[in-house]
Amino acid sequence: AYIERIEIRGNDRTRDYVIRREFDVSEGDAFNQVLIQRAKKRLEALNYFDKVDISTVPGSQPDQVVLVVDVVEKSTGEFSVGAGYSTGGDTAGPSVEGSITERNFLGRGQFIKLSAGGGKNSRDYSISFTEPYFLGRRIAAGFDVFKQTRNYDHYDSDTLGATVRFGLPITNSISTQLAYNIAQEKYKYDNSCDDNADGILGDCDLSTAIKQGIAESPWIKSSVSLGLVYNTIDDMKNPHEGIYATTSVEVAGLGGDAKFVKVTGRGSVYQTLSEQFDLVGLVSAGAGHVEGYGSGGLRIFDQFQSTDRMIRGFAYGGIGPVDVNTGDHLGGTTYFNASAEAQFPLPVVPESFGLRGAVFADAATLYGSKVDTAGVVQDSVGMKLRASVGLGLMWASPFGPIRIDYAIPVKKEARDDVQEFNFGISTRF
């Protein structure tokens, strides 16, 4: 049988072409049930519709059929205001965020988001736009404009930047993204460095490497990045089966001050261990390396810092090379990390509450600082492994996935900073 025509019904707001472009068949093509089901999954994945039904009725000729696509549209705009608290990362503390999101802008399938938020030590503002079918092809093109401020111990940072990106699906499970990134980074001492309360700021008791970065501010970072994603996860909100793997290469030095090549990769495997008890296993591993080039060397701000995504049980920037004169962690050029986790429903708690528990073990190392600044005496401790074990509580809340982790370091070094408790709104992949 052949497809005489494709009839679309129920799309009061969404343009016809937004639905038609998800089909790999068109009028006049042979009827192919596999391609029809693939289109149905794509339409459902758009999250524009509450319901998608595809059926056939006889056409005007015996060997022809009419493909009928019935959709029930849903609200695609969202205005949200939320509050949270995080104990990890460079934005620790209470925070608030507001955003306006439209996933199907003007019924054209375009994505737009405006957001603003911040807390005690951070401020974030951003605008994002994505056209999923650039020039009528299955190429996602978009841009992001952002402004970030961070308050660290004795100094502050202010970053203004933009990204232009293109994403291309290679197969149903593999996609790639090419992006150009440019940002201006400003660093300055904060008022805690006003030792005499006379309005004159000193340079505080900071590592010479940090002082040099502040003195040479502002910095321009101009880079190109290429990423690859492999995704077979069955449910991104509540994964039980599948693989999620990413790798990326970023090259900085297309103008600007930063000159480095940074390579990162991470993979996560989910596997149902027991359907009867809804027990899910998660094994993940990651690695990264950054290398500076040119006469300027590698800046301290371009090295990797440890986070709770690298290893739980340690503070942000709490492992790796240290300036022994000041105790400041310098970050490192290379890291490896791995994690094993078992997730399970909580006894006597109704499944509708969305609460799950977890037990986990993490291991990581961060080493190889290439900061070359006079006066910096580094205790690199080499490629020393850290490890932790802990418990987690996950809640699929209306505000997003919330997770609480309590981790105890079982292997650490003398100068490491420990943080056993971590709370945040995030999903680990």
How many extended strands? Answer: 23
Distance between the termini: 44 Å
Question: Please, how many domains?
Answer: 2
| Range of helix content | under 10%
Largest sheet strand order: 4-5-6-7-8-9-10-11-12-13-14-17-18-20-21-23
Name the CATH superfamily classification of the largest domain: membrane protein fhac: a member of the omp85/tpsb transporter family
How much is the radius of gyration in Å? 25 Å
Which strand-content bin applies to the residues? over 45%
Order of helices and strands: EHHEEEEEEEEEHEEEEEEEEEEEEE
* CATH class bucket of the largest domain: Mainly Beta
Structural class: mainly beta
Tertiary shape: globular
Largest sheet: 16 strands, antiparallel
CATH topology of the largest domain: Porin
Q: Mind telling me which CATH architecture of the largest domain this is?
A: Beta Barrel
Q: Overall mean pLDDT score?
A: 89
List keywords for this structure.
23 strands, Ubiquitin-like (UB roll), Porin, globular, 6% helix, mainly beta, 3-stranded mixed beta sheet, 2 domains, 16-stranded antiparallel beta sheet, 3 helices, 429 residues
What do these coordinates show?
By secondary structure, the protein is mainly beta. The chain has 2 domains: 72 residues, Ubiquitin-like (UB roll) (Roll); 294 residues, Porin. 6% of the residues lie in helices and 53% in strands. The chain is globular, with a radius of gyration of 25 Å. The protein starts with a strand and ends with a strand.
Concise overview:
It contains 3 helices and 23 strands. With 429 residues, it is mainly beta.
